[in-house]
Amino acid sequence: MIYIRRPTLHDLNECAKLDASFSTQKVWQMHLQSEAGRIQTQFNLVHLPRSMTIATPPEDRDLTKAWQRGDGIYAARRGNKILGYIHVVVQAEQKTGRIRRHVVAPEFRQQGVGKALLARAMEWGRERKLRSLEIDLSTKNHPAIEFYLAHGFVFTGFSERLWGRQEILMHFSRVVR
Predict the structure, then answer these.
(1) Pairing mode, if any, of strands 81-91 and 72-78?
(2) Domain total for the chain?
(3) CB-CB contact of 119 with 81 (8 Å)
(4) What is the domain extent for residue 42?
(5) Quick one: the chain helix, strand, coil %, rounded to 5?
(6) Mind listing the pLDDT tens digit for each residue in 116-162?
């Protein structure tokens, strides 16, 4: 049985330590073509010759402060074990929620934990009358992109930012219903 709840202060420390790394054999490659009066962008799914593991740094934001200000933070728990968590921040002007972090411990992935956390985040968004939830994902994070597409999110654009090294981030959004 999985329980989703607002974490205690003790839970926050466990959440921040969860392993967010992932492995993939697929990445999204961007092609940008620009000519007079036309810009065309295309993302293609590329199969890698071997699986690669992407290490994700531990939570760098202070979850305690986020928890105190009322951000949407929910933890998934089974017994005394934290299985994962989701952290959503409201962007009041746009009436949207931005998913800052959504982590499931590797040994509990593909068991409904991520789905249950996302469902609670959607409910939290409805309670606050948000229009949508949004997330930015690295083109290397094919498992997460696949997850969000399967749960009703749509591609809404991209940006290039420094995330450690220069990364292309794909933006996804879903209407809160």
Answers:
(1) antiparallel
(2) 1
(3) no
(4) 3-175
(5) 25, 50, 25
(6) 999 999 999 999 999 999 999 999 999 999 999 999 999 999 988 65
